[in-house]
Amino acid sequence: MSDSTAIRQPGAAGAPDQPQFYLRQDHHPQNGTSLGFWIYLMSDCLIFACLFAVYAVVGRNYAAGPSGADLFELELVALNTSMLLLSSITYGFCMLEAQRKRLRPAMAWLAVTGLFGAAFLGLELYEFTHLIHLGAVPQRSAFLSAFFTLVGTHGLHVAFGIVWLVTLMFQLGRHGLIPENQRRLTCLSMFWHFLDLIWIAVFTFVYLMGVLP
Amino acid sequence: MSAHPDHGHHGHDHGHDDGGHGAVTLRGYLTGFVLAAVLTVIPFWLVMDNVLGNSGLTALVILSLGAVQMVVHMVYFLHMSPSAEGGWSLLALIFTLIVVVIALAGSLWVMYHLNTNMMPDMIHDMKNML
Known about the structure:
With 213 residues, chain A is an all-alpha fold. Chain A has helices at residues 2-13, 18-58, 68-71, 74-99, 103-133, 142-175, 179-211.
């Protein structure tokens, strides 16, 4: 819709309005960025869908090895889940402060979000090392291969999210809440909330259903 | 998402990336957070305390709660709405969901049949053929 106005306007206005045409075009990619990023997230969703499909198919093939009920500690998973959920709401607070053009509080909330994300990642790495220590390594069974691939891919996403978050902190510190940084904040917010959304599927489908008898 | 303060007129929020509503609100985030927290606690409680006593029923309930929580995240955190991006976001989402359902259901269906048809019965049949 805004496409046609952006194109029609310079045509109707003619040459003198050229600068305005440039302005409209400058706007336009911002809309495009959001939609484009959304479509990236959807493609990421397909990656996770494939990994979930693999887990759904081979998730109970234990090869006489340990099962989910033997391995998963739900207390740890609950703690991990709350970390990610809290990081979602603190990112929301960051977006609210950014909306009010308050740089320092926005950066503070962003830092808190990063810390929650790091805590999540730390707990997950602790869980992985614990599992590996128990001999529940990825090559032990199809179940463990699928488990490490699925949960590891999610963890890798969170790790890259944190890298992005730290980068954005520097960009904010340097340039403030300019439109470009607002746009980046928006994209990272979509990315971050999307990861929380994927985690819902992980803790429900992998952990909770994994320990059901 | 309100990255376009230079639009000037506040009445026209539809151009914003945000899903037709323009500004994000504290109320929206808090509502989403409370709903998400409740929808997280219930499935953990159901499984950890084995409240329902029946695995199949519990699985069904926690999967449904997970689906509801995903919708909550979509609406309150990702600010999805039918009008976001002139409907293109929703269109992309629906397309993705269709592909996801085909991939998941198809994998399970095919692999289930592969297992049931290839397992001991089949070997038994093969022996009969010799």
